Amino acid sequence: MTDLQISLQENLRNILKDLYDLEVNTIEFQATRRDFEGDLTLVVFPFTRSSKKSPEVTAEEIGKALLESSELVSSFNVVKGFLNLVIDTKVWSDLLQNALKKDGYGIRQPRKGEPEAMVEYSSPNTNKPLHLGHIRNNLLGYSISRIIGATGKGVKKVQIINDRGIHICKSMVAWKKFSNGETPESTGMKGDKLVGKYYVAFDRAFKEEVDQIMESGLSKEEAGKKSPIMIEAQEMLRKWESGDLETVALWEKMNQWVYDGFDTTYDRLGVDFDRNYYESQTYLLGKKDIEKGLERGVFFKKEDGSVWIDLTDEGLDEKLVLRGDGTSVYITQDIGTAIQRFEDFPIDRCVYVVGNEQDYHFKVLFLILKKLGYEWAEKLYHLSYGMVDLPSGKMKSREGTVVDADDLIDEMEETAGRISEELGKTEGLNDEEKRGLYHTIGMGALKYFILKVDPKKRMMFNPEESIDFNGNTGPFIQYTHARIQSLKRKGAHLREVSHGSIIPNGSEVEIIKNISRFEEVIDRSAEELNPSLVANYIYDLVKLYNAYYQQYSVLNADSEELAAFRLSLSDMVGRVVRTGMELLGIDCPDRM
User: Fold this and answer.
1) Backbone dihedral angles phi then psi of residue 278, each to the nearest 5 degrees
2) What is the pTM of this model?
């Protein structure tokens, strides 16, 4: 709720008490519909029981009382049970002056001593590089972390790295057999790509062996079980689980190559983490919690010794939580890891950023944790997002299956450079500055294009469309920000010119009204875990400002006082744009 709404709310409480002896705690406002005159609308139906009058008469009485007692409202009109309030123009001018005095307008400082939130995202496997799906995951997770943090709540950013299991053993076996000892250093290849190369090599060798074995008359499934390279990988997994020193050493070396490669990609994406969890350290967690749940009747055992939970009453089915031989399944360690996190950090909520193919898994996980008696299970959220598609044939990875994250980043920077040069956006910049600008524009285009879409929706990403300096794109917003910074440099002499007596015109009021909504948009975006609300708010503000800029001269206004006012308004737009883009993890250059 904005400061204006808080002031109006207090006025209305007094009015309702005086008129109808009615005491209310919360009074909600709506933005007035475009086809009616007004800025804010009050729905009066909840007050008619106390007023004992029709909604129209009640609204008329409240409107008159508000007009007499408040300097905030200049006029009102009544449409059925809706009281439309026209805010005095001077109020909007004052709102702008107050906003200009605030550093980090719209952002609240962390509230010390209160529980924090946790956001888990990325969570890759260590057998291949990050891909396009990881990019959407990382951008959503990082942005949601920033947005929640902007509401004044502390945030911990974490990932769980899937660094154990048969997948990494496949890469290890293939590296031992085919690499001749090559390393990231000897090849100049990123470590995650090198390990991914041998994961692909394993798959190729495995398929060749299966084809050969099938020639003896065995089925594909039977041939797979007899494949020497698969048997070798399974044996390596057993050695790792038993702590064989040579196997563990190779595992540590190859995983470190991958971690280093991931870090490079994360750095290019501009995302980071406060804590890494590793599956190799968490896969045994949860077993003791299953045992406790068995004692309390939350789980039950079948004849083979396996442990299950019956969720049929909740519209799901029976779910295995522990195998008959006592080994964990994924849900087991997820139970243990969730509990561990609430022990590790003073958090009261946790957001899992994971694709929508895992919807069922998280329904089960959250239900189990509730049944185990953890109150915080009510504050677990699955930010379920849709897949990202690309135009057919675009930017396929070397493996020919998925889009490699580094390749996509390279493509974005190259495209940004080519289009920037064609449009003359790099005049006066040296080579280093150009490279920095290409990265900023390329990443801004990528991030904004992905984040402007509701996370729940499947989306099509077209790199060429995303780097358009017109329309609902990152570069369009970045360019508007740079234009405002240019105005500030040229109008530096106006900084000390007082403009408090300027009454904003209709277009300026619309911009200020939009600015005043910024905090409200952040809060809604955090509540709904939806960065697209921030992204599209910024675009709407920029679109509004650009229309204004085309109609009114800023620096060549009719008076210095008016020029100073318009420059201050432009400055405030620039600040909100920069802050909003930062919440999306996007940089805004000062020059373009």
Assistant:
1) -120, 130
2) 0.91
